[in-house]
Amino acid sequence: MRAATLAILLLVPSLWPRALLALPEDPGALPIQELTRQESIGGRTLSFDLYVPVTSKPCPIVTLAHGFARSRVMMRDWGKLLASRGYVAAAPDLPGADHPGNGKLLSALLEWLVTESQKAGSPLAGRVDPARRGVVGHSAGGLASLLAATTDSTIDVVVGLDPVDVGDQGKKAVPALKVPVTVLRATPGTCNDSGNAQALYAALTGPALSLEVKAATHCDPEWPSDPFCSLLCGASDDTRRSRFVRYAVATLDHVLLCAPGLAAWLGGASAGSDTLIQKLESKSYPPASLGCATAADAPGLEAARKDAGAPEAGRHEAGRESGAAADSRPGADAAAAPVGDEGCSCRIGAAEGEGLGLLALLLALAAASGALSVGEDAARRSGGPGRSRRACAPRRRPGCGCPCRSRGPRARRPRSRRGAAR
Asked: Which are the contacts of 226, defined by CB distance < 8 A and separation ≥ 6?
C-alpha cells in the first residue's frame, strides 16, 4: 500500500505540495518599479537605486550593500528578485572604506525609506512596513551591514555575502548582535582575505548560520558581476550564485515574511543534502526558535498573489525572556496550534495550508520506503512557484513572536551602543 501510494504521488506532479515546486531563489510574481534617487541622507548626498513591488500592501525593507571599490550596479539583480518577492530594496553607492560610517548610512537609508513612504504622492507611499527591516551586503558591504545592526536595534536580520572583515572591526562588534545572521561564504582566497568571514561567524553569539558554497569565487555573490572582478578574484558562475541567492532569500523570507517551509534550508535537511554546500555550521538554527517576524498579508508570500486580507502577525523579539505570557488581548485564539520543535504559535491558515498535509504524507512515505528522490530540476519542471500564507495565531511561547495586532506606530526599542565600531 505504501509503495502504491508513493508511486501515485511521484507520477502525478499536480498532487505534489507546492512547497516542493518552488525554490527560494525563484522570482516572485509581483511586477516591480525601478527608481534612481539622489538624496541627502546621513549628512551626505547618497545615490541609490530603488526596487519597489507594485502592490498596495506594505512590504519589508532591505538594503543591498556592494563591496569595496564596487557600485550599486553589482546588486541590481538582487534588487529585482527581492522586489518581485515582496520587498522594497535599496542599493546605495557607498563611499570609501569607512565601514562603520557606511553602516550608519545603511541605517539612515532605512529610515529614509520609512519617512518617504509616509509622504502622499511618493512612489513609496503606503508600500513600506517600518517594523520589518533587513540588511544584505557583499564583501565590505557585508561588514558594513553587520556594523549597522550592532548600533541599530530596528534591524531584524543580517545576511553577509562572503563578508570581509577589516582590522577586526566586525569581529569586535558582532558579539553584541542578537538578531539572526546568515553568513554565506566563498572559497577562501586573496579577495576575501583568506575567508575571514568564518572568524566573523565564530564571534557571533546570537542565532547564526554559516555555510560555504563549493568552489565559489568572491565574485559569485555579485549579481551581476563584471570582467574586472573575474580578472582579480575568479569568474562568477550562475549555478554557484544561485546558492548565495537561495540561502539569503530563505533567511529573509523566514524572518521578515514568516514564510512557511524554509527551516529545512536554514541548516536543515534541504541544506544538508545540497551538494554545492559544505562546512555548514549553525547556532540556534534552523531558526524556528526565532518565531514569525511579520505581517501575514505581506505581498510576497504567494507567487500568484490574490488581494485578500489576512490576520497580521507581530515582529519577533530577539532575546525575549523565557516564560513569555500568552497573548490575553480580546479575541486571542486560545485554540491556536503550535508549530515546530520550539512550539511556535505561528500556524498555517486552515483555508490556505493546502498541500502541507500532503507534504508530510509524502515525506513520511519516503522515510518508510527509502524510495523518494525528487531533484530540484524535476521539481522546477513540474510547476511554478507557489506558497501558502501564514495566518497569525495570537498565542506566543518563549522565542516565538506571532501575536496578532493591528498595525500602528512602531514601538521603538532603545538603541544600544554596545559593541559599536569606532
From this structure: 74
Question: What pLDDT score does 267 carry?
Answer: 81
316-332 pLDDT, tens digit each: 333 333 233 333 322 33
Residue 124 · residue 52 · CB < 8 Å: yes
The verdict on 53 and 180 lying in the same domain is yes
Q: Is 360 exposed, middle or buried (0-12, 13-18, 19+ CB in 10 A)?
A: exposed
Average pLDDT of span 240-258: 95
- In terms of residue numbers, what domain contains 359? 2-20+310-391
> Does residue 120 sit in the same domain as residue 265?
yes
Same domain, 358 and 267: no
Do the beta carbons of residue 88 and residue 128 sit within 8 Å? yes
C-alpha 197/C-alpha 184 separation (Å) is 8
Mean pLDDT for all residues in the chain: 74
Assess whether 165 and 210 both reside in one domain: yes
- Asked if the model's pLDDT at residue 12 lies above 90, the reply is no
- Quick one: 164 and 51 in the same domain? yes
